[in-house]
Amino acid sequence: KFEPIAGTQAPFEVITRCGDGLDAVWSGDQLWLMPVGGGLKPIFERPQLAVKYSRDYLHEVLFDGRWLWVVTAESGLRVLDLNGKLLGHLPASSAKGDSPAELVADATQLPPFDPKPYPLFQTQAGPGSGLRSAPSLRILPFGQGRCLVAANYGPLKRLWIAVVTLEPAGTWDVKIIQQGTKVAQLGDLTQFQNADIATEVTWLTLFQKPQPIPRPVAILGRRMAPFRATEIQPLLIDLTSLKVSALPGNFREDGYPWRPVVAANGRLIQNTIHLFESIVPDFLKPEAAWKSELFIASPNRDNRISVEGSLFVAGDDCFVAAYGGWARLNTRDWKFDLLAPRPLPKEQLFSYHGVSSQHGLVSWNRNGPLHRVTITERSR
């Protein structure tokens, strides 16, 4: 059921939890803080560059446990504290062209990247979900003041991955740890077993590597036309050694190119139009030895129920909130069920969904109130 939360108004499209009841909420134009007790405190507006019809919209806002990392389409990466103070700004390099030799990384700028158009946050539920196009930069904070950044540049979609560090004194360190510069050759799938092929960045997630020593790693999804997404292995980034390699396997179903893959309880999870897929990535064994499981909304191929929508995690559950109803996958017992699988009534159709530090699972339409979402047995 959906209950309106008194005193809330939502001009935003995305919620980023900051802990202790504090949320950062944002749209393509503006970033606010939503503290306990309600109200919105504006802390950042998209830059109005001197270019007519500027496309410098907000693309991503993530929290590292202390600071907010903010991506805008054209002007790069910023870090703000929870009072809204700008702690640092890394613009893109002014280098143009498509030569790997032109990559520049120093304490004042990022390597070059391709600005992307404003992504539509339809049924937005969390970092990067619901996007119809990729952000200009994919980011993943992995410690206070440290962030993994990945982007493409040039017509050949060359790739770079960097670790960016902002010290409390305000100084930056930018270290390129991987480049994908080689152009993919048609007919050769073995080339994607390497990390040096030019491919588009699609998703980036944190994963707890279980063996041989448990430690966090990052996994980065790749794509490159005309190859299928399942033919291009994701990249594994060791956040301790900063070594980058290709995983030996991948998902077996083609997922949405710009929507997130989430990590939960030792698995990676994605959704497609009719199903969820989970895999247990084995970092040593070939793909044929991986455990893959499909959760299908309807066994009838001619009349399958759509679970097209944004995938997001709330507690032990993965949800997709679609106009045709909600689907849920529990990450403890891996039980999959449909919540109100028939089309929802008009008053329960919401464009945006997320998880708030203070309100829990919420849905809303822009400029309307937030609605607290409660899953009851009768919802099934």
Task: Report what the structure shows.
- The protein is mainly β and 380 residues long.
- The chain has strands spanning 2-4, 14-17, 23-26, 30-34, 41-45, 58-63, 68-72, 76-80, 86-90, 138-143, 146-153, 158-166, 172-180, 200-209, 215-223, 235-238, 244-246, 262-264, 267-271, 275-280, 291-296, 310-314, 317-322, 325-330, 336-339, 352-356, 360-364, 371-373.
- The strands form seven sheets. A four-stranded antiparallel beta sheet has the order 1-28-27-26, with no helix packed on it. A four-stranded antiparallel beta sheet has the order 2-3-4-5, with no helix packed on it. A four-stranded antiparallel beta sheet has the order 6-7-8-9, with no helix packed on it.
- The radius of gyration is 20 Å and the shape is globular.
- Mean pLDDT is 85; it is low at 120-132.
Number of helices: 0
Count every beta strand, where a strand is a DSSP E run of 2 or more residues.
28
Distance between the termini: 11 Å
Report the C-alpha radius of gyration, rounded: 20 Å
What gross morphology would you assign?
Answer: globular
Unreliable parts: 120-132
Strand composition percent: 35-45%
How would a textbook summarize the main sheet? Answer: 4 strands, antiparallel
Helix content: under 10%
Q: Give the H and E element order.
A: EEEEEEEEEEEEEEEEEEEEEEEEEEEE
User: Strands of the largest sheet, in order across it?
Assistant: 1-28-27-26
Structural class comes to mainly beta
Mean pLDDT equals 85
